[in-house]
Amino acid sequence: MSAGAGHKIWLLHLAVVGLLAALQFMLPDYHHAVMAKVLVLAVFAMGYNVLYGYAGLLSLGHAMFFAAGLYGTGLTMLNLGWGVAAALAAGLAAGLVLALVVGVLALRTSGVAFMIVTMMFAQVLYLTTLYLSPWTMGDQGFVLPQPDRALDVFGVQLDFSDPVTRYWTALALFAAALAATLAGARSRFGHVLIAIRENEERTRMLGYGTFANKLAAVVASGTISAAAGAFYAVLFGYVGSNFASIQYSILPLLWALTGGAATTLGPLLGTLFMYYVIDIASGYTSAWLLLVGLALILLVLFFPRGILGTVRERWVAWLP
Asked: How far apart are the first and last CA of the chain?
């Protein structure tokens, strides 16, 4: 890729972040809150996209990483009295350790078997959150007290329940994850993952350690997803078992496919599109799933590789 294309890529991503920052001052209250949630969930989808989009590993258990960050942060704040910074670190650590363990075990399989194994691990975590309901409150979940969701930074009190602080924090998280995934996708590591996705045996014959690279992809993917869960707990103050259910493993796959797998901005576009399609459709009819299904059929017909994936394939080849 030429240096000119590289500059265009970074300028495009900076422009997207700048546009999202400008929306902070333009959106009405309802959409302001929705966009903050979309930004956090887009990070979840970006984490999934690292594994599926770039490494070609289909997981049906990614909710366990989101839930690991969510509970790692929420439980330490609620039961141990940890502050926001320490609790967020605990959530990230929980996701990283879980991703490492799951990766070492699940990568002994491949294809459909890998998908099933990840789903089984996720179900174990989901059932564990239900079994430990005296502490996790199960499906009912628990709410983090507003005074606990504050952080003192050099004498300045940041209240993460405040809509403005919440939006800026969600945007900062998204920008950091976007920069990390963009740098990773354009690095040697990202190119090796794409080679593994296209032909793992040939990549191995070229001398690359495919297991080590796939394990690194699982850990990176799980940690990014756990970061989304950890910040979700702090920004929105709710922790519940529903975030560990199979539905929350399917959603990031849907968001990544809708926006365009193996594109850096696809997860954001897919999350935003699907969130508003569901929100608008459910406001008009109780049969909103039918409208969502029709929207997905049209999307598959006209954008078979997702929105940005098809745009890259047909018109803008330099999109990452």
From this structure: 10
CA distance 75 to 233: 10
Each residue's pLDDT tens digit, 129-170? 999 999 999 989 999 999 999 998 887 889 999 999 999 999
Give the contacts of 267 (CB within 8 A, at least 6 positions apart): 42, 45, 46, 48, 49, 252, 255, 256, 259
Task: Give the sign of the dihedral formed by CA 166, CA 167, CA 169, CA 174.
Answer: positive
Q: How far apart are CA 258 and CA 271, in angstroms?
A: 8
Q: Kindly state the tokens that stand for 295.
A: 């929207």
pTM over 0.85: yes
